[in-house]
Amino acid sequence: MRKFMFFVLGLFIFSNLCFARSIDTVPITNSSDSTDISCASTVATYSKSFLIGDAEYFSFDYWAYCATGTTSVKIELELSNVLPAAEGAADSNYVVPYVSGTAQPDIITALTTESTWYSTAYSPVAKKYGRLKITATSSDASATLVKASSNKQID
Fold first, then answer.
1. Does the residue 10 lie in any domain?
2. Span 64-83, mean pLDDT?
3. Over the stretch 2-30, which tens digit does the pLDDT of each residue have?
4. Are 39 and 134 in contact (CB under 8 A)?
5. φ, ψ at 12 (rounded to 5°)
6. How many angstroms separate the Cα of 57 from the Cα of each of 17, 123, 150?
7. How far apart are CA 81 and CA 48, in angstroms?
8. How many CB atoms neighbour CB 73 within 10 A?
9. What tens digit of pLDDT does each residue of 35-64 get?
């Protein structure tokens, strides 16, 4: 009986180790691999692409700061099945996802509170790569920095 109890306990521990879900958190960078993504103007800035792979659950953490004035940025998720031709540049293979003809909501439409980390969950996606499209929406756009990371849970 005692051997049986150890066998059952071992099986329980082994099954939890084998089937445990892991969460992978990766900093999102600009095309130069810096975690400070600078918004040079009110023109869109693109992060470096990142692998989404077979993530079951997905979220983003993000933070913004403006040294000379008011922070105001819009952050969107773009998806693709291929890497961009040039990191940090517009690419027609990357699109904002649509579901039943409706664009998915922005990660955030107007991030105006500085130096506070936020997190936004996203539904599972069916694309291999993602990247952030960041657009400063204030007159102080050239002094705005954004930091972000992606979190994905894989079975």
1. no
2. 85
3. 665 555 555 555 555 455 568 888 889 88
4. yes
5. -65, -50
6. 20, 7, 11
7. 14
8. 25
9. 888 886 778 889 999 988 777 788 889 888
Q: How far apart are CA 27 and CA 1, in angstroms?
A: 50
Hey, what amino acid is at 52?
I
Query: Has residue 68 been placed in a domain?
Result: yes
H helices of the chain, where? 2-18
- What is residue 46's predicted lDDT score, i.e. its pLDDT? 93
pLDDT, tens digit, 9 for 90 and up, residues 85-120: 999 999 999 988 776 666 666 777 777 777 788 888
User: Which CATH number characterizes residue 150's domain?
Assistant: 2.60.120.680
Report how many domains make up the chain.
1
The residue to which tokens 């150890």 are assigned = 6
Nearest to 30 by CA among 111, 133, 129, 119: 133
In a domain, 5, yes or no: no
Write out the residue range of the structural domain in which residue 84 sits: 22-154
Q: Classify residue 52: in a domain, yes or no.
A: yes
